[in-house]
Amino acid sequence: MKKDKEKNKTTPETPQQEETCQQAEAPAGENEPVVEEQPAQASVDEWREALELAVKQRDDYLDSLRRTQADFQNFKRRNQTARSDGYMDGTCDVITAALPAIDNLERALGAAPEGDPLAEGVRMTLKLMLDSLSRFGFEEVPALGEEFDPEKHNAVMREQTDDPGKVLEVFQKGYRVKDRIIRYAMVKVSTD
After folding, report:
1. What is the H or E stretch that residue 165 is in?
2. Considering the entire predicted model, what is its pTM?
3. What is the DSSP letter of 116?
4. How many angstroms separate the Cα of 28 from the Cα of each of 19, 24, 32, 33?
5. Pairing of β 153-160 and β 180-183
6. How many CA atoms within 13 Å lie on the side-chain side of 151?
7. What's the DSSP call for residue 161?
8. Contacts of 157 (CB under 8 A, 6+ apart)
9. Mind listing the pLDDT tens digit for each residue in 122-181?
10. Domains of the chain
């Protein structure tokens, strides 16, 4: 009987047990029916939503790119303006600092006797200085005999004449660099 019990352990008694044993002994997947999974078909509405999302993202990215480009162009323009303004301010500051020297050289020429060789050296120095500064747009503001212009002239005295509004005398010359006045001309103006 011992042998019968051992025999029962290795051989199944019922057909159901036999199938279970065969399935346990067989490698996985051999006896199972093959079921192919088909990809889920996207509906037209899902495709439409995906397309709308992609178009919205594209428009957002394009808008962002355009804003960034516009910001960069504005930055370049502001930077260029700041650099040119800084250059002009520096030029005007340096020339303004040199104006007292120009005034003193002109006073020296006015006080020197005619034909003095020293006066000729001062005249040449003044001319060289004015020529050097003119390369930066430096020039004298015309005043004597001109119509009085408060944008260019600073009236410090008045005198009654028959021809009002004219500059009669210049006490201190005015100068400009390009279109910017760096010193107004101090003048006497005729009135009626």
Report:
1. none
2. 0.61
3. -
4. 14, 8, 8, 11
5. unpaired
6. 3
7. -
8. 169, 187, 188, 189
9. 999 999 999 999 999 999 999 998 999 999 999 999 998 888 889 999 999 999 999 899
10. 60-136 (3.90.20.20), 138-192 (2.30.22.10)
